[in-house]
Amino acid sequence: MSPLSQQLFAHAENGDAFASQVDAILTDNSLCTLATANEDGSPHVNTAYYAHDGQLHLYILTPPSTVHAKNLESRPAVALSVFRSDQGWGSPHRGLQLFGAAAPVGEDEHRRVFDCYSTKHPALLDLAPDAERMLEELESRFYDVQIKSLKIVDEAANGSESLISIHVSRTDRDSGSD
Hints:
Layout: H1 3-8, H2 15-28, E1 31-37, E2 43-52, E3 57-62, H3 67-74, E4 77-83, E5 94-104, H4 107-120, H5 124-127, H6 131-137, E6 141-154, H7 155-158, E7 164-167
Antiparallel strand pairs: 1-2, 1-4, 2-3, 3-6, 4-5, 5-6, 6-7
């Protein structure tokens, strides 16, 4: 069983299949819809590029001055959706609904996240050739979205109108326990 399967589906007999679906959807797409809450509780939504690390951490790069980044400072709860927008009506749907919390990436993790993000989005290297230069020259900063639960829609693999809901069991570097 893969590390992602062990983390997500420790007790599911088809955990490898679900982990493969999640990884494929995250790998095959580059944009997400990110929902945050404004100070008055009203919703705010934006579109963002992301990268993921194989442990269900999504990384968003955005200036701290944006509405969504300001929202994350005081209200870290987020919801995201990842899908291809060109899926036609009547064709099998495929995508993810993700729920979790976001926080700025710490200095100790910045280089690793920069490498992860620039691998998925090599154009970042045109703006900043390395993590240190990025911190010096760009206003944008990385935010770590730690996924706590998700829903998989993969009708080709799981059947028409199927929605697989999963709570993520965290044993990785951020939580220290389940």
